[in-house]
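User: Let's play a game. I give you a shape written as tokens, and you guess the letters that built it. Ready? Here's round one.
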């Protein structure tokens, strides 16, 4: 993912990204942060997590500027009805609110985040996935990808969110629009979402091919695998 300029020189952006990615790949290889414990979902704080009050920013070193005028959300792949939604079309869908906790694999958890957006189920109902579409791949404006099973996406607490604590989601946190899957580690919640692809065969994403767990349940401590 390193970026080189025309002279072939690796730019600062490329170096920052590579270092961060190397460090996280190393954590996966060494099994760092693993407590070896699991916990019941009723336990609010998953094993090995600690509570933070601020909201850390984690990305690949690129924060794409996505204007509302240029914004597009495509829903395609193994579906009956493909969609390509403009920002206005997205906002015209039924809007809902939610409050949930988020859990990052780098060990921080943050309680009681207040969101506004569109339920994943609203989108799924519109596109009508084929019977063999068992997986979903999220594609983001920064080139990031991540994958979940369709049944993990098709949950009542999964949303595409554009507001946090009553304000538009800041660009560094994935605005204008990001995925929110609260019951999985936060790397599954793609920021700057561009496209949701429904697929029959699973296709591991950016961190999943770099040693991170395909399933990512924080209460089972599925950090690496
Ligand atoms: N598009 C995109 N989405 C992404 C990432 C990314 O680099 N690019 N990082 C993931 C990771 S590893 C985490 S922990 C969360 C971080 O979200 P935050 O920066 O809002 O805390 O976003 C996830 N979604
Ligand atoms: Mo992360």
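Assistant: Ready! My guess for every position:
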């Amino acid at each position: 993912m390193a970026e080189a300029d025309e002279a072939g020189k690796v730019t600062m952006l490329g170096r920052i990204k590579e270092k961060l990615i190397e460090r996280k790949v190393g954590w996966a290889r060494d099994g760092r942060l693993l407590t070896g414990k699991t916990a019941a979902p009723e336990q609010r704080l998953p094993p090995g997590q600690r509570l933070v009050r601020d909201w850390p920013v984690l990305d690949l070193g690129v924060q794409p500027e996505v204007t509302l005028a240029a914004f597009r959300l495509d829903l395609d792949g193994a579906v009956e009805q493909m969609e390509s939604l403009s920002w206005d079309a997205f906002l015209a869908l039924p809007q809902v609110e939610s409050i949930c906790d988020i859990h990052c694999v780098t060990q921080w958890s943050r309680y009681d985040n207040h969101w506004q957006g569109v339920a994943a189920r609203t989108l799924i109902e519109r596109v009508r996935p084929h019977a063999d579409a068992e997986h979903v791949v999220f594609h983001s404006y920064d080139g990031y990808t991540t994958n979940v099973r369709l049944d993990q996406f098709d949950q009542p607490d999964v949303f595409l969110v554009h507001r946090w604590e009553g304000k538009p989601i800041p660009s560094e946190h994935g605005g204008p629009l990001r995925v929110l899957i609260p019951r999985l580690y936060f790397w599954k919640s793609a920021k700057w979402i561009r496209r949701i692809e429904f697929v029959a065969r699973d296709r591991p994403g950016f961190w999943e091919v770099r040693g991170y767990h395909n399933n990512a349940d924080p209460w089972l401590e599925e950090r690496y695998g």
